[in-house]
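User: Fold this; tokens only.

Assistant: Input:
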Amino acid sequence: MIFQRTFIVKTTIVFGLCATLSPALLLADGPADNIPEKVRKIPALGVEVPEKQKQQLQQGLAKLQASLDQLKKSKDSRIQSLIPDVEIYHRAVRCALEYQEFFHEREIGNGLKLLQQGQERAEQLLKGEAPWTQKTGLVVRGYISKIDQTVQPYSLVIPDSYTFSGKSDYRCDLWFHGRGERLSEVNFISQQQRSRGQYTPANTIVLHPYGRYSNAFKFAGEVDVLEALESTKQNYRIDDDRVSVRGFSMGGAACWQFAVHYSDRWFGSNPGAGFSETPLFLDVFQKETLNPTWYEKKLWQWYDCPGYALNLYHCPTVAYSGEIDSQKQAADVMEIALEKVGIDMVHIIGPNTAHRIHPDSKIIIENKMDSLAKVGRQRVPRTVHLVAYTLKYNRMAWVTLDAMHEEWTQAQIDARLSRRNRVDVKTKNVTAFSLKMNAGESPLDMTHPVMVQVNGIKLEAPRPLSDRSWHVSFHKSGDTWKVGPAIHEPGQLVKKHNLQGPIDDAFMDSFIFVSPSGACASPAVDKWVKSEMKHAIVHWRQQFRGDARVMKDSNITDKEIASSNLVLWGDPESNTLIKKIVGKLPITWNRDEIIVGEQRFSAAHHAPILIFPNPLNPKKYVVLNSGFTYREYAYLNNARQVPMLPDWAIIDLRTPAGSQYPGKVVDANFFDENWQLK
């Protein structure tokens, strides 16, 4: 039975990873996971591998590694580009064996099968053949991530209609999987070679990102999606105007996040269940009493979606919930947020349905998504709304937010193309922005100047060029607006896109852990540094399924400084790079004390954590003594996986590191928009 009320359609439907993985792979979180002192291990320790099967796995790994070594010697660029499609099998099994992540006896058999499949691909590639690249149906592939240079898997459903020698581009749907605490690479690849998933629209490539495990596709998981999509575009003909984001459960949360952060990239979004923000969801689903710091509340805005709701003006959205699913809360929250900005949300509701997608709802959803795909995304909308809390997500269509008055407070730009070569712009919490249309995109008259009115101030902008491109920047000077980018003093630091912090942002691009060659001045600091660096390395692999690159301070060259964010472990006594840059940081750190503004802390039992533009290369970050900032307690519920520290913090080491913090946080804050202490 189907009910319809204004823009709300009630029916039913199911899925996520929940519909495809066995119950053994689905471990539910809940109130029992609200005790920071009693945190269960995620992923749990797997089964012991019998000696005979261990030897078979080791032999298979050695054989496949020998083939990979041979492939890497090839000078054929095509072979080199396809090595990740082989290496995913080796890494998946190696990690499962090395870290005891076969969670059931049958997975050991799956591991042996994956090694056989990897060996088959390797032998084909050694002959110059790659039949899987010309295959329809289920195809698992890989790419090398820019973050840590590890190979990462992703899965595709290539429609039978796909023509490898044709010219037409295809629609692409991204499907985000649900929570799976046992979703190792072995389980992901094995599953994706058996199931086409919940939705397989006609003439559509469906991309299933791995997302680097079970992190709600945040941080490195977010980058994984973008890198997997780029890899898919390199290998298949994708229509940029017909790409959508979809998901259920944890994947529904990811869908909301990608929909509001990258609204202008998709022809539509289809989130189901999941969560759309942190505090209310943890109250409803986790029954958790929260006591956040002021900066933790601010940092919720990285992935909390309600504040970004107006961005969905550019991304048609079809939400789904089961009527009796507690995760219906996610869409209910977004429906209220959208109503506040004047948008009525389409919400398909499955009557008397729990955490599932009902077949009737599926039909309605597919009809709507098919219709949206026919229209495609609008590349140059006449009206653009951009809402942002951070310069990390600073672009919408032809509008770019270049600078904010205060990060982590809502900023907004509303721009409209009016008649008579006029553009009307209204801003809030914005100090600089740009308007840019690529060649062929500008509808403005190229024979006349463009009048841009910013918050009531009329400014004459340059005309579009002969290729119908148009680009102009504006900056705020005092209380007025001027044409042109803001002019800064040589060497002056300013926060900008991908160089705005907080600490966790350093781990969304290439990074290297730089270990100290000496001992810290304080034994307590030395012990803490060693422990925290080990923790960061272990948990990078455990939670983001990669291998952190580690180099000694003495081995860092100009190449690493130019290409990567450097995470420096130690103090000015132990790490030569910290010694080089410490005098150029806003925080003073010497043998005796740490000075932050007017505050002083004993260096004997305190340590600073911070992120800052690297004084040796201000185009990259330097981080002191920190990996990603959420810890084991957050693994128990994906809504908790949010930044726990801002741009800098002072840690009192007399309180041991725990499941939430690396010690007692005695002070923490953001730097201002010029990277100075507030």
